[in-house]
Design goal:
The complex is a heterotrimer of chains A (269), B (310) and C (517). By secondary structure, chain A is mainly α. Chain A is built from 10 helices and no strands. Chain A has a single domain, classed as MetI-like (MetI-like fold, Orthogonal Bundle), CATH 1.10.3720.10. In chain A, helix 6 crosses helix 7 and helix 8 packs antiparallel against helix 9. The longest helix of chain A is centred in the first third of the chain and has 37 residues. Chain B starts with a helix and ends in a 7-residue tail after the last helix. In chain B, helix 5 runs antiparallel to helix 10, helix 10 packs antiparallel against helix 12 and helix 11 runs antiparallel to helix 12. With 310 residues, chain B is mostly helical. With 517 residues, chain C is α+β, with helices and mostly antiparallel strands. Chain C has a 5-stranded mixed β-sheet. In chain C, helix 10 links the parallel strand 15 and strand 16. Chain C is globular. The chains are: A mainly alpha (269), B mainly alpha (310), C alpha+beta (517). The interface between A and B is large, with 52 and 62 residues.
């Protein structure tokens, strides 16, 4: 197997992010929630590598803790959206008929809901917490997954090899799992990697409205949202979490591409 | 076509009902907000009576559905305006921005994505994918503000706030929507490039492409006649999705650029618990959504000959 | 520096050439952070609505800059010895925007609408028993109005002047539709309502026949001569965008600049910053019926663990004065005794908390991100209490949800803000009362309630002052709330705007302002 640059770069970037998170579990330079009003918005120095925020908290420490929170929340949300979405999409696309119509109606209902309203409603009922966010965003993104899966199932189910599997007398379920599911891997992987990013961004938008992961816990999203008013005076406050988000996403996406190439059944054959 | 529309009807009812009851589950109502820190139980009761919020929720829902079926979406609690015309007026702004940005994004992203797929793993491919990945990882409100500072304030190319309709002043309107359209288009381009690339890679692997190449069909013809049209179909689905998610997510952009669009109307109505406006806008968005998806589904077979219209 | 200046000049020149359809010369463009709710005074309103409508409508009396009351449409106010009869001789030179002269019948007509239950006027309850009862509005002749009360009240004129009640603005009957519903204001103010394009702008036009009082502008009273032909309120919800609009020359007044932007704005050539302390109050509420906070020692422990001056300095960047009294520092009733801020004492706080049986259980403080100050107060309080071993958890809610929790008294602690209260009795009344009937009230102390009611009947300022000091003393003992500070409004104008001033109420005033380029 040749070493793909995607895998190398993506793995390195993501490895860095996970290493930061792992370090944060055992050590951060300062207590990430410790307030120090005498050292607010301090520029970077040997003491504070990335300076301090509007409450005098150490940005580097918060960034590290944010890695833990953001990664956990995003991963949990993506898993939830994928499981739900693939179930709906596969069932709808493959079984068609009334199942498809009913699932389609429910799916369209969810899709037509702006995420913010859904999040607002669910968070009002669940109370603001990180698991509330996971549930709200997971539900909000599941329909997008379902739609993409259904679309690709529709385009695959008419192909010769699927017809052939049926003609050979294989059951529908076997055909679905053995021949249809692997072919949804490519679009779903691409979507899942984007989703990972969208969740981190959506969390920042929710934080912006005060609905994200509750403070003082740090996420890259709520750091970005809190930094916004200081963009002129302390640009690093916005740039640092932004760079972490971009690094993480770039890593995830490159790795996703590499993964898709590896997963592709015809490549292995 | 008509049958498909009828099938969509339950979706609309489902949306209407979920919005209605979800909104009433969320704590806080218009009376508390209007009265603010001076609300007495007495004055809250008076206002709830004035807005018909004292009746059972089911009765309120039935009344609303009955009027909505007759085309009357009620009046805004906040401003007293009729909801129907209010939505249409705000939608013009949003539609202009969404259509312009999606068109722009498609024009940039689809060719780039296909090019990247065609030259897969080349440096060009890597550069395009890296750029796309970078774009889709930027928060839109952040990009919007940067644009505002650079182009609005430092360079002074466009006015920082305000809006005129295209009917009033065509060139003026272009000035006002240039930044929001550029912001959204850039972000969507990132998503679309990756999607277009992925589906083109899929198609290029198919046997008939190899066949065509083996038969000596010129490469440009293979791409133009065989590969690209087929690769476009899944991308189309995503365009439909993006149109929809833009409608929901455009509120932040509309706030940053002070555009009186539908997204801002909805978010402001949610925060003010302006029930008639929220319900009206949601129903409207749902209708648009269903229609966009319908069009995408109907167009799918046109672009992908392997699928027969269902 | 040179680069910045030339960029600014470029931005200004372009802003000039691409100006909105309004000719910039004779118009004043003001930032409005959210659309107004309606033009119906004191009914469907918020602070923005009040601040815009006070250009259009005037009442019999109006607030001065120091929150005292001055006659406006009335020539003067005569109060009978028993405090039950108020006589308002009307000014003869006043015209409505439709050209009609103001008569006592117009006043009676407007007051009748305010007093109807269906109108939902914000101050109806106060004049219907809550503070006093307005029993009659009489018109002995076309130029005299007489109002009769059931019991004397020090607050009656203040209620008529309250901005959140639309100053009980006197409107012409043409303001109503045939069915009695509100159509559009036909008032007597210095400006009349022009085009209102919802979500975009509201325009006011100069009322050429406005009869200005002599002298200088003073609050909402005094000389209110309009000096610009047109005022355009441009709706810009985003603070950063608003600041950019000011620098690009798209607006002429930024009435509510953020404190943290001030150093930069001050440094720009031509920009002037105008600051005034407002009459609002930022406060931490505590639920005295809560199992943990029921014990007064626990509440005292929390108050002692807070470093109030440090907290206020941090939140307001040093622009507000810390004060534990609910009466704003700018008020004539804020006495020296009220200026004292008890020092932080962590040891005492720990001891009191322990005596109260506190064992580190989490206490939830409700806050919102809608108002950054509320959020920062909660975060800072959390950090400060942690040092005294008191474990605060933040519950960040969306504003409407927080308001409902406030109205229901459904919280342990809450970072909150009260809008401007112009009479010292109201400064206490806003959180004092029986929880059984008004759950939003934080301080349920019948003895103090009686004292407060006495202060509303008392008209002698010296005796009222003594009552308020007694109330304040007991408040510091009971600690149902921790008052922190009144915010300071900062407005910024470029060099071509002259005569702009801020005052105790946040919203801008466009009269007396000139635009000279």
């Amino acid at each position: 197997m040749r070493l793909r640059p995607n895998l190398l770069i993506g793995g390195t970037l993501l490895g860095f992010v996970f290493a930061v998170a792992a370090t944060a579990l055992v050590w951060t330079p300062y207590d990430p929630v410790r307030i120090n009003l005498r050292r607010r918005l301090v520029p970077p120095s040997a003491d504070y590598w990335l300076g301090t925020d509007e409450f005098g908290r150490d940005v580097a420490s918060r960034l590290m803790e944010g890695a833990v929170t953001s990664l956990t929340v995003a991963a949990a949300t993506v898993v939830m959206a994928l499981v739900l979405g693939m179930a709906i999409g596969l069932a709808g696309g493959f079984l068609r008929g009334w199942t498809d119509r009913i699932l389609g109606a429910v799916n369209d209902t969810l899709l037509a809901f702006p995420g913010i309203l859904l999040a607002l409603g669910l968070l009002a009922v669940l109370g603001p917490s990180r698991w509330g966010i996971v549930l709200a965003l997971g539900l909000a993104y599941a329909p997008s997954v379902a739609r993409v899966v259904r679309g690709s199932v529709l385009s695959i189910r008419e192909r010769e090899f699927v017809e052939a599997s049926r003609a050979l007398g294989n059951s529908e379920g076997y055909t679905l799992l053995r021949h249809v599911l692997p072919h949804t891997a490519a679009p779903v992987t691409v979507l899942a990697t984007s989703l990972f990013g969208w969740v981190i961004l959506a969390e920042s938008a929710l934080s912006f409205l005060g609905l994200g992961v509750p403070p003082p816990a740090a996420t890259w999203g709520n750091m970005l949202a809190s930094a916004r008013p200081f963009m002129g005076d302390a640009p690093l406050l916005s740039i640092a979490p932004g760079v972490m988000i971009a690094t993480c996403l770039l890593g995830v996406n490159l790795l996703g591409d590499a993964l898709r190439d590896l997963l592709d059944p015809r490549d292995g054959a | 076509m008509l049958k498909r529309l009828l099938v969509a009807l339950p979706t609309l009812l489902l949306v209407a009902a979920s919005v209605f009851f979800l909104m009433r589950l969320i704590p806080g109502d218009p009376a508390t907000i209007i009265l603010g820190d001076a609300a007495t139980p007495d004055s809250v009761a008076d206002l709830r009576l004035a807005y018909g919020l004292d009746r059972p929720v089911l009765v309120q829902f039935a009344l609303w559905i009955e009027r909505a079926a007759g085309g009357d979406l009620g009046r805004s609690i906040t401003s007293g305006e009729a909801v129907g015309p209010l939505i249409l007026q705000r939608f013009q702004v949003t539609a202009a921005i969404v259509c312009a940005s999606v068109t722009l994004a498609v024009l940039i992203a689809v060719p780039l994505g296909m090019l990247a797929a065609w030259r897969q793993n080349s440096w060009g491919d890597v550069a395009i994918v890296a750029a796309a990945t970078f774009l889709l990882s930027i928060p839109s409100f952040w990009l919007g503000l940067i644009f505002l500072l650079v182009f609005g304030l430092w360079l002074g190319w466009v006015p920082v706030v305000g809006y005129v309709t295209f009917a009033e002043d065509f060139r003026g309107a272009l000035h006002y929507i240039a930044l929001p359209v550029a912001t959204l288009a850039l972000i969507e381009t990132g998503v679309l490039i990756r999607m277009a690339r992925a589906s083109t890679v899929e198609v290029l692997r198919l046997d008939y492409i190899a066949h065509a190449r083996a038969k000596g069909v010129p490469e440009w013809r293979v791409l133009a006649r065989h590969a690209f049209p087929n690769a476009f179909a899944p991308t189309l689905t995503l365009i439909g999705l993006i149109m929809g998610s833009l409608l929901g997510g455009i509120a932040v952009i509309e706030t940053v650029f002070t555009l009186p669009g539908l997204g801002r109307l909805l978010v402001e109505a949610i925060f003010a618990r302006d029930y008639p406006v929220i319900q009206g806008v949601m129903l409207f968005i749902a209708v648009i959504y269903v229609m966009v998806n319908l069009v995408v589904d109907l167009l799918y077979p046109v672009f992908d000959p392997r699928v027969t219209a269902g | 520096m040179r680069l910045r200046a030339s960029l600014l000049a470029l931005a200004a020149s372009l802003g000039f050439s691409m100006a909105t359809p309004v000719a910039a010369q004779d118009s004043l463009r003001i930032r409005l952070n959210a659309d107004i709710r309606s033009t119906d005074p004191g009914v469907n309103r918020d602070a923005n609505t009040d601040g815009l409508m006070w250009h259009v409508l005037e009442g019999l009396v109006a607030l001065r800059g120091d929150a005292t009351i001055a006659p406006m449409l009335a020539e003067r106010v005569d109060v009978s010895a028993d405090g039950l009869t108020y006589t308002f001789p009307l000014r003869r030179d006043v015209r409505f925007h439709n050209g009609q002269s103001l008569t006592s019948a117009d006043v009676a007509f407007a007051m009748e609408r305010y007093r109807k239950r269906e109108t939902n006027w914000r101050c109806r309850g106060d004049l219907d028993g809550a503070v006093t009862r307005l029993t009659a509005v009489e018109t002995p002749d076309p130029h005299t109005v007489v109002m009769r009360l059931e019991r004397p009240s020090a607050l009656f004129l203040t209620i008529l002047a309250r901005t959140d009640c639309g100053q009980a603005g006197i409107f012409h009957r043409d303001s109503l539709n045939a069915d009695g519903s509100w159509r559009a204001p036909v008032g007597t103010g210095p400006f009349r309502l022009g085009e209102w394009r919802r979500g975009q702008f509201v325009e006011l036009e100069r009322f050429a026949e406005y009869a200005a009082l002599p002298g200088a502008p003073d609050g909402l009273a005094g000389n209110k001569a309009p000096l610009v032909d047109r005022v355009r309120y441009t709706i810009i919800p985003d603070d950063a965008a608003a600041r950019a609009a000011l620098l690009a020359g798209n607006i002429d007044v930024l009435p509510d600049a953020r404190t943290r932007d001030l150093p930069d704005l001050r440094a720009r050539p031509g920009m002037s910053v105008h600051s005034s302390p407002s009459f609002d109050l930022q406060i931490i509420l505590m639920q005295t019926t809560d199992p943990v906070l029921r014990d007064v020692r626990m509440r005292r422990a929390i108050a002692l663990a807070l470093d109030v001056p440090e907290l206020v300095r941090a939140v307001t960047e040093g622009s507000s004065r810390p004060s534990r009294a609910p009466i704003p520092v700018g008020s004539a009733f804020h006495t020296p005794a009220m200026s004292e801020v008890p020092a932080r004492d962590l040891a005492a706080a720990r001891r009191l908390a322990q005596e109260a049986g506190y064992r580190g259980q989490p206490i939830r403080i409700v806050t919102t991100r809608r108002y950054e100050a509320f959020f920062e107060i909660a975060v800072l309080a959390q950090g400060m209490l942690r040092e005294a071993g008191i474990n605060l958890e933040l519950e960040v809610l969306e504003w409407a949800t927080q308001l409902q929790r406030y109205t229901r008294g459904d919280y342990q602690m809450m970072a909150f803000g009260f809008s401007a209260r112009l009479d010292p009795s109201l400064s206490f009344e806003m959180f004092t009362g029986p929880k059984a009937t008004e759950p939003r009230k934080a301080w349920d102390n019948p003895e103090m309630q009686a004292l407060l009611e006495a202060s509303m009947r008392e008209t002698d300022p010296a005796r009222r002052r003594a009552t308020f000091e007694a109330l304040f003393g007991q408040l510091m003992q009971d600690v149902p709330v921790i008052a922190l500070y009144s915010s300071v409004t900062h407005a910024v104008t470029p060099a071509h705007v002259q005569g702009y001033r801020t005052w105790a109420v946040d919203a801008p005033r466009a009269w007396g302002v000139r635009v000279q380029r």
